[in-house]
Amino acid sequence: QVQLVESGGGLVQAGGSLRLSCAASGSNRSIKNINAMGWYRQAPGKQRELVATITNGGRTNYVDSVKGRFTVSRDNAKNTVYLQMNSLKPEDTAVYYCNAVDRYTSSDYWGQGTQVTVSS
Q: How many helices and strands in the chain, by DSSP H and E?
């Protein structure tokens, strides 16, 4: 089992920046089995959507709406994934969830979520 704990959410004005962090913990085997980590978000009344992912090897993927504004990165030594969010817009307001995927079982692990609110 893997536990994910997010931090860094909050309230920011449009055009501002926030940095989210997500630390993974668990057994050595479970941690080593993680391949992709990333971030999803869910706004009120909407489905959860992928924001950005990064593999163990550093390959990244972004939803079109955040390209050029958000950057996902990863510190494998600290088992931590980050999401740097710049030029935030009110439509970025959502609960952001950290996600990790087991490379062998494709099991999904989720954090508890952190609220990001962007005021206009």
A: 1, 11
What are 53's two structure tokens? 């992912």
Answer for the pair 8, 80: CB distance below 8 angstroms, yes or no.
Answer: no
Eight-class DSSP state of 92: G
85 DSSP β-pair partners: 18, 70
Phi-psi group of 113: left, alpha or beta (phi > 0 → left; psi -120 to 50 → alpha; rest → beta): left
pLDDT digits (tens, 9 = 90+) for 42-53: 999 999 999 999
- In the DSSP assignment, the letter for residue 15 is T
Q: What are 38-79's pLDDT values in tens digits?
A: 999 999 999 999 999 999 899 999 999 999 999 999 999 999
The distance of Cα 86 from the centroid of its chain, to the nearest Å, equals 14
CB atoms within 10 A of CB 98: 26
The answer to whether 118 touches 65, Cβ cutoff 8 Å, is no
